[in-house]
């Protein structure tokens, strides 16, 4: 500061030009927000919105007390939901492993052809939510648990594939080089040099996705893909709010338990 | 090699188990897994005739993906996309604005105990409920349309951002906070000078990431009536218009890819 | 080949690391299921015994100390049945005592098997102590080639530049040595 010329004694955090740019950026964001707000609410009926507190109070009063007698009827759908998540995750893992090896820069057999294809599969799977996959699959193979499992598997490919291929790319190249130097083939190098390094990441990712899939599979029934979501849909359609609250509490409990299990397992493998 | 003493060495070697060293435990867990898979597999009821019929539809859908029809439902599609995009932007902005105070409130090192508990429970509720379930309730309260979707996504954003922000604040260097505090700074000055510079870059990164998630979610909550492209997609599939559905899915994929790429570039630019 | 940073696969057992030296000789399926031919397993155990790690066969590589890891690295290199041993800075990550033990082990094994070895090393006293022939390189050109006793301060200055080259001082020089095979 001592070196500053005397005619500019005021210290600024940013140069005037930067400040102008910053202000302009903020202004643009606010304008964009206002514009989006206008467009979005063009057809909003504010009468309904104003009425929301009454509606909330009404629904709340109907939801309480929960209809506990409904619980026994929910156990089999809950079991189905857990199966959808578990088998769906297992299927997703099996499909994601080869795709991850094709997508990782250091293991892909052809960076020009197979790698882009694998990355495209990963992006497609990640962009489309499991509920949309379920919507499609229910239309294609019919309503039921199978559609749910396949939907979960298809959505899991992208998630597991992405994290796994990043883990493969982050492996220590020295260990891999040492194996390659023994005269091992490509496949042997992968098995001895890379696989041992990614095993902890692999289990961590799979269990993490299983935990997410438990949450997601609870709602797949809304589009007919089996599980406890079917009961939720049924109760909502008949406006049986007492049953809805039981279902939500059950879902909440399942989610908490699955989160606990997944945290335990991840702790054990890492 | 002749100098090495002639000693007998084992000719077989098995890799010792790494995780479960007790043989009985290992075997019983393996049996349990196989039994579970059999039972779970049997709980699947498949109507094979339906599947055969469906495969024909699957083929049509695959064709729809290859030859998407953007034109015939363009009006619905463009409306859905605009709803989704506006919903995404507004909900992310509002979500950030609300989650900053809640995130600060949920940081143990800045707030009194009671406020901390209140903020943490808001975060917990928002995180444990699926967006779709929240959307069902908000549609019931606020009526169909993007406004309910906007509220859903804002609420979900709060759970996501406030939690990560609070965790970040709790992990910052206590030394820097102490240094600013010792200059006699007020609580606001403390947040402004000691906390903000440390968490700001990550907050921006997370906000961009959440923008991305919100768009993807906006495609889903339409299925339960909360506006956006999801509603259009649902209708297209219900009407078996697979070429339009393919077009919608392609648009979603392209926007998600574009958003991911853009947010990656912006994050790099900011660092 | 023996590596500078051991380059063991950290999460595999010692035995698997040694057996990985045989990968070039066995089929993919055998290596996948870890069912190596009996003579390979026997050879691996003998090598582990030779480097003094027979009891550690089932330990994971990341549970070993630096010197032990380099011993596993030696066993792995020998498992390949090499005709020439390439050794890249075998002692760069080790303390002086362990460095000497490792160098002694390498020279002893080479003598036993009449195996030539090329060692790349910066530690001049270590090279002079254990090697039979030194080759000094400077910018890719040979500036010294002879028995360890012939190496003097003048040559070291040519290689590394001006420095007080007292004996016992730790020095750095790229040098090579070939044991007559």
Q: Overall mean pLDDT score of chain C?
A: 80
Shape of chain C: elongated
Tell me the name of the CATH homologous superfamily of the largest domain in chain C: P-loop containing nucleotide triphosphate hydrolases
The CATH H-level superfamily of chain A is MetI-like
What are the segments of chain A in which pLDDT stays under 50 over at least 5 consecutive residues? 1-5
Q: What is the ordering of alpha helices and beta strands of chain A?
A: HHHHHHHHHH
Q: How many individual domains of chain C?
A: 2
Work out the count of structural domains of chain A.
Answer: 1
Q: Given this structure, which CATH class of the largest domain in chain C is correct?
A: Alpha Beta
The count of β-strands of chain A is: 0
User: Might you state the CATH topology name of the largest domain in chain C?
Assistant: Rossmann fold
Q: CATH fold name of chain A, please? A: MetI-like fold
* Uncertain stretches of chain C: 166-181
Largest sheet of chain A: none
Strand order of the largest sheet of chain C: 1-2-5-3-4
Q: What is the annotated CATH architecture of chain A?
A: Orthogonal Bundle
Quick overview of this protein structure:
The complex is a heterotrimer of chains A (270), B (271) and C (181). By secondary structure, chain A is an all-alpha fold.
Structure in words:
- Chain A is mostly helical and 270 residues long.
- Chain A has helices at 16-40, 46-63, 71-103, 114-127, 130-141, 145-169, 173-180, 186-217, 228-237, 241-269.
- Chain A has one domain (68-269): MetI-like fold (Orthogonal Bundle).
- Chain A has 10 helices and no strands.
- In chain A, helix 3 runs parallel beside helix 6 (145-169) and helix 5 packs across helix 6 (145-169).
- The model of chain A is unreliable at 1-5 (pLDDT under 50).
- The longest helix of chain B is centred in the C-terminal third of the chain and has 35 residues, at 187-221.
- Chain B starts with 22 loop residues before the first helix and ends with a helix.
- Chain B is built from 10 helices and no strands.
- Chain B has a single domain (72-270), classed as MetI-like (MetI-like fold, Orthogonal Bundle), CATH 1.10.3720.10.
- Chain B has helices at 23-42, 48-66, 74-105, 113-128, 131-142, 146-171, 174-181, 187-221, 229-238, 242-270.
- In chain B, 76% of the residues lie in helices and 0% in strands.
- Chain B is extended, with a radius of gyration of 27 Å.
- The model of chain B has no long low-confidence stretch (mean pLDDT 84).
- Chain C folds into 2 domains: 1-131, P-loop containing nucleotide triphosphate hydrolases (Rossmann fold); 133-168, no CATH class.
- Chain C contains 7 helices and 5 strands, in the order ααααβαβαββαβ.
- Chain C has helices spanning 14-19, 28-32, 38-50, 66-79, 96-113, 124-130, 153-160; strands spanning 85-88, 117-123, 134-138, 141-146, 172-176.
- Residues 166-181 of chain C have low confidence and may be disordered.
- Chains in contact: A-B, A-C, B-C.
- At the A-B interface, helix 1, helix 2, helix 3, helix 4 and helix 5 of A face helix 1, helix 2, helix 3, helix 5 and helix 6 of B.
């Amino acid at each position: 500061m001592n070196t500053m010329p005397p005619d500019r004694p005021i210290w600024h955090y940013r140069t005037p030009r930067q400040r102008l740019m910053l202000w302009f950026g903020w202004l643009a964001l606010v304008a964009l927000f206002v514009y989006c707000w206008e467009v979005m609410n063009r057809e909003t009926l504010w009468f309904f919105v104003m009425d929301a507190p009454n509606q909330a109070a009404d629904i709340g009063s109907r939801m309480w007390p929960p209809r506990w007698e409904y619980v026994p009827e929910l156990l089999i759908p809950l079991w189905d939901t857990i199966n959808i998540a578990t088998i769906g995750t297992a299927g997703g893992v099996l499909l994601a492993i080869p795709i991850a090896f094709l997508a990782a820069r250091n293991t892909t057999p052809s960076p020009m052809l197979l790698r882009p294809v694998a990355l495209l599969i990963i992006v497609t799977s990640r962009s489309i939510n499991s509920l949309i996959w379920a919507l499609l699959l229910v239309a294609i193979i019919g309503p039921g648990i199978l559609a749910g499992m396949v939907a979960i598997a298809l959505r899991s490919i992208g998630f597991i594939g992405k994290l796994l291929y990043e883990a493969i790319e982050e492996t220590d190249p020295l260990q891999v080089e040492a194996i390659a130097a023994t005269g091992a083939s490509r496949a042997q190098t992968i098995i001895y040099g890379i696989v041992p390094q990614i095993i902890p990441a692999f289990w961590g990712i799979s269990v993490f996705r299983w935990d997410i899939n438990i949450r997601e599979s609870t709602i797949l029934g809304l589009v007919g893909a089996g599980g406890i979501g079917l009961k939720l849909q049924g109760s909502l359609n008949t406006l049986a709010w007492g049953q809805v609250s039981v279902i939500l509490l059950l879902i909440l409990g399942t989610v908490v338990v699955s989160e606990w299990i997944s945290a335990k397992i991840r702790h054990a493998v890492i | 090699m002749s100098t090495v003493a002639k000693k007998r060495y084992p000719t077989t070697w098995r890799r010792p188990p790494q995780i479960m060293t007790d043989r009985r435990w290992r075997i019983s867990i393996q049996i349990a897994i196989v039994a579970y898979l059999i039972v779970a597999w049997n709980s699947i009821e498949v109507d094979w005739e339906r599947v055969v019929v469906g495969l024909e539809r699957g083929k049509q859908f695959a064709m729809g993906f290859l030859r998407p029809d953007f034109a015939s439902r363009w009006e619905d599609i463009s409306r859905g996309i605009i709803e989704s995009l506006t919903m995404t932007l507004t909900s992310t902005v509002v979500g950030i604005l609300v989650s900053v105070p809640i995130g600060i409130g949920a940081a143990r090192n800045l707030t009194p105990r009671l406020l901390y508990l209140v903020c943490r429970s808001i975060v917990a509720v928002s995180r444990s409920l699926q967006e779709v379930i929240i959307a069902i309730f908000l549609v019931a309260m606020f009526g169909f349309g993007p406004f309910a979707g906007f509220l859903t996504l804002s609420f979900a954003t709060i759970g996501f951002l406030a939690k990560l922000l609070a965790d970040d604040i709790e992990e910052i260097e206590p030394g820097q906070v102490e240094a600013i505090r010792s200059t006699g700074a007020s609580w606001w000055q403390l947040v402004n000078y000691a906390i903000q510079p440390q968490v700001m870059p990550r907050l921006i990164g997370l906000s961009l990431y959440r923008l991305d998630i919100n768009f993807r979610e906006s495609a889903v909550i339409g299925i339960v009536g909360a506006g956006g492209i999801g509603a259009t997609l649902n209708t297209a599939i219900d009407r078996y218009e697979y070429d339009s559905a393919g077009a919608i899915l392609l648009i979603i994929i392209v926007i998600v890819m574009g958003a991911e790429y853009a947010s990656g570039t912006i994050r790099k630019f900011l660092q | 080949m023996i590596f500078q940073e051991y380059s063991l696969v950290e999460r595999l057992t010692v035995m698997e690391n040694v057996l990985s030296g045989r990968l070039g000789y066995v089929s993919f399926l055998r290596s996948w299921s870890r069912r190596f031919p009996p003579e390979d397993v026997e050879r691996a155990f003998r090598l582990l015994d030779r480097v003094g790690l027979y009891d550690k066969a089932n330990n994971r590589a990341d549970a070993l100390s630096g010197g032990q890891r380099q011993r596993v690295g030696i066993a792995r290199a020998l498992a390949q049945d090499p005709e020439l041993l390439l050794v890249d800075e075998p002692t760069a990550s080790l303390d002086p005592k362990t460095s000497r033990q490792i160098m002694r082990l390498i020279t002893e094994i080479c003598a036993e098997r009449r195996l030539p070895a090329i060692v790349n090393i910066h530690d001049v006293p270590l090279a002079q102590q254990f090697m039979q022939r030194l080759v000094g390189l400077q910018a890719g050109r040979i500036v010294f080639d002879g028995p360890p006793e012939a190496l003097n301060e003048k040559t070291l200055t040519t290689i590394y530049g001006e420095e007080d080259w007292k004996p016992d001082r730790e020095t750095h020089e790229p040098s090579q040595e070939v044991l007559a095979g």
